[in-house]
Amino acid sequence: MNMQRTAQELAALCGAELSGDPERVVRGTSSLESAGPEHVSFFGHTRYGKELAQTRAGVLVVPRALQAPGVDATLLRCERPNEAFARIFEAFGRLPARPGPAVHPTAIVGRDVELGEGVSIGAYCVLGDGARLGAHAVLHPHVVVGARARVGEHSELRPFVTLYDGVSIGARCLVHSGAVIGADGFGFDPIVGRAGLERWDKVPHGGTVEIGDEVEIGANSCVDRARFEVTRVGDGAKLDNLVHVAHNVQVGRNVLLIAQVGIAGSTRIGDGAVLAGQVGVNTHIEIGAGARVAPGAKVWNSIEGGRDYGGYWAMPRGEWLRNQAHMNKLSALAERVRALEKQLEALAAHPRGAQSGNAADGGSSPQQEPA
Amino acid sequence: MNMQRTAQELAALCGAELSGDPERVVRGTSSLESAGPEHVSFFGHTRYGKELAQTRAGVLVVPRALQAPGVDATLLRCERPNEAFARIFEAFGRLPARPGPAVHPTAIVGRDVELGEGVSIGAYCVLGDGARLGAHAVLHPHVVVGARARVGEHSELRPFVTLYDGVSIGARCLVHSGAVIGADGFGFDPIVGRAGLERWDKVPHGGTVEIGDEVEIGANSCVDRARFEVTRVGDGAKLDNLVHVAHNVQVGRNVLLIAQVGIAGSTRIGDGAVLAGQVGVNTHIEIGAGARVAPGAKVWNSIEGGRDYGGYWAMPRGEWLRNQAHMNKLSALAERVRALEKQLEALAAHPRGAQSGNAADGGSSPQQEPA
Amino acid sequence: MNMQRTAQELAALCGAELSGDPERVVRGTSSLESAGPEHVSFFGHTRYGKELAQTRAGVLVVPRALQAPGVDATLLRCERPNEAFARIFEAFGRLPARPGPAVHPTAIVGRDVELGEGVSIGAYCVLGDGARLGAHAVLHPHVVVGARARVGEHSELRPFVTLYDGVSIGARCLVHSGAVIGADGFGFDPIVGRAGLERWDKVPHGGTVEIGDEVEIGANSCVDRARFEVTRVGDGAKLDNLVHVAHNVQVGRNVLLIAQVGIAGSTRIGDGAVLAGQVGVNTHIEIGAGARVAPGAKVWNSIEGGRDYGGYWAMPRGEWLRNQAHMNKLSALAERVRALEKQLEALAAHPRGAQSGNAADGGSSPQQEPA
Q1: Which of A49, A60, A243, B353 is deepest in the core (most CB within 10 A)?
Q2: Are both A123 and A61 inside the same structural domain?
Q3: Are residues C219 and C272 in the same domain?
Q4: A164 found inside a domain
């Protein structure tokens, strides 16, 4: 797209305080590293200080209080730089336009459905009886909202999202394509006869799912309904793609569940906990508030909040890394044990004078172990 | 919903034998722990004996033979308590009503499709030529049934399920949203030229998938078609969400595959095996009937049936846990080896009399290792 | 289906050079092991030499140069045996027919959409404004193509695929059901107040996804859009089911990502690398070209190309397997260390003469450790 904007126009767009040349013209967005004078870029974190010092960007969105003495770019100082940059992406056509308020003629809307002001319902959506959409909620095409399910105001559901009957999504949520909210919890009782297991008896799940406000749910993630009560995802929690949250789980406020995390049934994840990609969490345990779990860790027992954890048998991070370091050279440790055994055998055979010969073969010296 | 039911009404609903006050009135369902006198609750397992003793529930669904001397509630004794409680959930509007028999006018039905008596086909379903639905099968809105695919009687497919051409689902199955049955197996032959790998040559997959009777498949799970013959999921098997079953795999009867399990190609899972969440199973191996594999385990080699397994290199459970316990304090073991080496070095340097000094520093004593 | 074909007809169908009886009649396809004289089967790899020697198949598709002295079947020698066999599967109705060129009347096509020659757009597809489909592209029913998204010529998208706005799919790709291309990258900045974490601030993602030519993407896999620039999947790469590719990742040419692999943000996967099922790869690292990573491995640090790796802390395969072998009998190693400690304690207590007693109890002898 052939677009250009002055720094001043962009400042107006995102409510920024401008410092530098207001007439600078930019034609697109770019990262700090790749930007040229024709780009507007973004600096949020001190950890990118080096990139900031070297950037060639013409215009920069930065936190309001930033001191950036050596930077040549025109600065747009913002209270909420991420939100500001979303406006700038939009100005350059880089974010999808939010569809206007309308109900597409192909949408099928059940009886007793309540639609808030300004809702947008895309093509081929299906809303069951008694569903409720809050004001300005957006259903992209091909969303299924079950009977009596509820979507809060300003929430946005991408194509092929399924809300099963009766589940509830809070306000200002974003649910990506293919997410499934409210499928049956996985519960089966064994029916055992004389010859052993005969079949699995389905445990009916009459509970529901409640997703709080400002929650984001990634593509193809699944949150199952509770057996009697509520599987809950707290306000401000963010779930990445392909995450599994089982029945009765309680996910606290502001929890991050990164891609492919799996939480087994009835477990509680405390507020602000961060579970990295592919973490697995056992059933009926508790992750303390603010705990941070490294990628791929498997959490077997409840862990306290406010600390870092990792490992196939998750433990405090420092302990895990010490153990892991030894695991990573375990064959060397085993060789050292073998060498000790030989030395002691030699000692037993020749109780005196044999040791120096053993020491001379060097096999037991940790200085010589493989790196 | 403003509902109330007497114990007697509920007993009639689920064919229970009532013991206690038939006039007790309840207004909803709840778990044993949370129930009050206005609730009907459920007791199935002796492992919830404590909750049973303490429950305040007014009415309880229980197994027919239960003795519950101290319990005040009116008891509804049932042959199949889970099925009974499903009826009770329905009575309180907690389970989705099964849609009535009808073909929605927006459904697109190909040529030579056979529809059994009483089928229900929801909005925007698409059925390919020659598809067959058994009597009373239910397709919720937005289900795609490929050409010549088959759905058995009383089976139910939730929104956004895809059945690829020619696959077959048995009777009384439940397939949750987003499941994909019959996508191509993942097979590619390397085409290697002078400069190494040039491209991957797709191996065509002309086989199919057959899902048995009474199978449940979780949301967004995938079962791939076989290369020549059949990827099979046996009668009574239950798959949780986000499970992957590769081409040619044979899943036995009554197998449980819990969330995010992955089974590599051509592997056989024996009847009644239970694979917990995030388990991975290697290609071309066999899991014996009734084997139970702990969460997150990786199964590299065939394992015998009837036993429990676990670990990153799956082995019998007891062995795994013993090894795991040592892994969890491996740095302590390494320190003990270092202490032994020092002692032996001292012995070698001073063959007599030095040992007591080493022993006194205590470093090698297992009693002092970190917990 | 009641079908039969002569060897000669099949040879014509797939451009093969026939050797043997051209009048042999077959009625279906089968694997080498299961085939009878009435089947056409396939031999591609020397690793199936034994099955080849024993097969009873009537007709065999084989590589052009194959010598197969003892084989009785009529041979169809082909330059590209896999492609040839795809034609044969089609002849027996075992592969889905490609839908003919047409735009289904229920498809909703936005403004300024460009449709190449011979495209096929299935029922209930939705194409946003400015979308482009190359010649002979196939959208099966229920595909959503976002505004300005692009699908290359001859590419095929299965039901319930979502292309978010602006993403691009190359030519001759195959995308299976439920795959989601271009959902927001998972990026959130912590907003910390006096009482700790207050909320996560969404980092807007204005970049896109570019999928190369001849890429296959499995069912329910997800490739997220970049923050500023492009998440890229190179030409000829193949992704299996339930794979997660995070924002800014660069997947090289001819990479294989097997089922349930997860790649964290900004990581680079070199050309021709093969990541087996359930592998996890850390953020901001690099997998060298042609690296091969064993199932379930977790890759924490960059690894060099051209080698094999494995393990929970991925390392070169040989090293991993040596370490793993010791991990698998770690409790035995710990017992040996305990035995050494006892011997040394005895030595310390009785500096002379005690050793032989210790040696006699055998506890420290590695010959006696559990297998």
Answers
A1: A243
A2: no
A3: yes
A4: yes
Enclosing domain of residue A139: 102-319
- Taking only Cα atoms into account, the Rg of chain B, rounded to an integer number of angstroms, comes to 29
A142–B141 CB contact, under 8 Å? no
Structure tokens that stand for B371 in this block: 């917990």
- Closest Cα of chain B to C111: distance in Å? 23
Q: Is residue C315 part of a domain?
A: yes
The tens-digit pLDDT sequence of chain A (371 residues) is 568 999 999 999 999 999 999 999 999 999 999 999 999 999 987 677 788 989 999 999 999 988 878 888 999 999 999 999 999 999 999 998 889 899 999 999 999 999 999 999 999 999 999 999 999 999 999 999 999 999 999 999 999 999 999 999 999 999 999 999 999 999 999 999 998 999 999 999 999 999 999 999 999 999 999 999 999 999 999 999 999 999 999 999 999 999 999 999 999 999 999 999 999 999 999 999 999 999 999 999 999 999 999 999 999 999 999 999 999 999 999 999 999 999 988 887 876 544 443 333 333 332 332 23
Neighbouring-strand partners of residue C9: none
How many domains does the structure of chain C reveal?
3
B43 and A CB contact within 8 Å: no
In a domain, A325, yes or no: no
By C-alpha distance, the chain C residue nearest B219 is: C220
Cβ contacts of A240 on chain C, cutoff 8 Å: 186, 244
Q: Domain boundary at C91, C121, C152, which? A: C91
Q: How far apart are CA C332 and CA C353, in angstroms?
A: 27
Residues facing residue C197 across a β-bridge:
C192
Regarding whether B224 and B307 lie in a shared domain, the answer is yes
Q: In chain C, whose CA is at the least distance from the CA of A330?
A: C323
Residues A150 and A283 in one domain: yes
Q: Which contacts qualify for A295-302: CB closer than 8 Å, 24 or more apart?
A: A295/A258, A295/C264, A295/C280, A295/C282, A295/C298, A296/C280, A296/C298, A296/C312, A298/B278, A298/B295, A298/B296
Residues 161-220 on B with a CB inside 8 Å of C are 162, 164-166, 178, 180, 183-184, 186, 188-189, 196-204, 206-207, 220
Yes or no, beta carbons of C177 and B162 under 8 Å apart: yes
Neighbours of chain C (3+ CB pairs under 8 A): A, B
The pTM of this model reads 0.94
* Final residue belonging to a domain, choices B24, B59, B91: B91
What chains are in contact with A, requiring at least 3 Cβ pairs below 8 Å?
B, C
Interface test with C, best of A241, A312, A320 (most C CBs within 10 A): A241
Q: Cβ separation of A355 and B344 shorter than 8 Å? A: yes
Within this chain, do residues B187 and B68 fall inside the same structural domain, yes or no?
no
Q: Reduce the DSSP state of residue C215 to 3 states and report it.
A: coil
Q: Do A336 and B337 touch (CB under 8 A)?
A: yes
Residue A296: Cβ within 10 Å count: 29
Query: Residue A260: which of C162, C244, C344 has the nearest Cβ?
Result: C244
In a domain, B12, yes or no: yes
Q: Are residues A345 and A245 in the same domain?
A: no
Q: Is C62 found in the same domain as C173?
A: no
Q: What CATH code is carried by the domain that includes residue C300?
A: 2.160.10.10
The interface predicted TM-score (ipTM) is 0.93
Residues C274 and C351 in one domain: no
